[in-house]
Amino acid sequence: MSLNQGLVLQARYSGILGAKSVRNRTIGRGIVSVSHASEALLSKQSLISIVDDDPSFRDSVRRLLKSLGYAVAAFPSAAEFLQSPKLAGTACLVADVQMPTMTGVELYGNLIETGRAIPTILVTAYPDDDVQQRMLTLGVVCYLRKPFEEADLIGCLRSALVRATPTATSRPRRRRARDR
Is the dihedral of CA 35, 36, 37, 43 positive or negative? Predict the structure, then answer.
C-alpha cells in the first residue's frame, strides 16, 4: 500500500508503531533502533518540514505525520522553505528530488554549504541510482522512491531524528594525544 493511497492507513499505525519489525528496520545504511521512551520524546518535540511541489503528495505526507504526533510544516518550494522562520527549528526535512527552480538535491547542498546540516530524506518519482548513491554518500538519511511504504518513511524519520538529537550529533570528539 502506498502513501498516495490516502489516509485509510491511519487506523493501522497504532499497531505498526509498536511492532518490533518497524522499530528495528534496516533503513538506508544502518539499523534503526529507538526505545519507546525516546520515540515518544522525538515525535512530540520534533518539527518535520516537507518540501514538495505536488500539493496532493505534500498534503498526504503532512496529514500522515500529524496523525503520528509530529509537528509538521509543509512548503511548495525550496525557496519558501529557505525563507521560512521554520527552517531554524526543523529537525528533519523530507524533500522531493524533482522540483522546479531548486531541486531537493540543490536544497540539501544549500543547507550543507550554509552550515545547516538538517537530517534529510529525499523522495522521488524519477529514481536515478547515481543520484541516490551520491546523496547517500553526502549524508542524506534516506532516498525513497515514490510511491513508498509508510513504514519505510517512518523508519527513515526515526533514523533522521536520532541523528538530529544533541547526544547523537554534537558529542565533542576526544582528541588523541598525537593530535594535540
Answer: positive
Residue 119 to residue 112: CA distance in whole angstroms? 10
Give pLDDT tens digits for 54-104. Answer: 999 999 999 999 999 999 999 999 999 999 999 999 999 999 999 999 999
Number of domains the chain is built from? 1
Beta strands in the chain (DSSP E): 26-27, 30-31, 47-51, 71-75, 90-96, 120-124, 142-145
Query: Per the structure block, which three cell numbers stand in for 130?
Result: 547515481
Predicted model pTM:
0.71
Q: Which contiguous run of DSSP H or E holds residue 14?
A: helix 10-18
CATH number of the domain bearing residue 85 = 3.40.50.2300
Residue 62 maps to a domain:
yes
For 14-45, write each residue's pLDDT tens digit: 222 333 333 333 222 333 333 444 444 455 57
177 occurs within a structural domain: no
Q: Does residue 176 form part of some domain?
A: no
pLDDT of 164 > 50? The answer is: yes
Burial class (CB in 10 A: 0-12, 13-18, 19+), 172: exposed
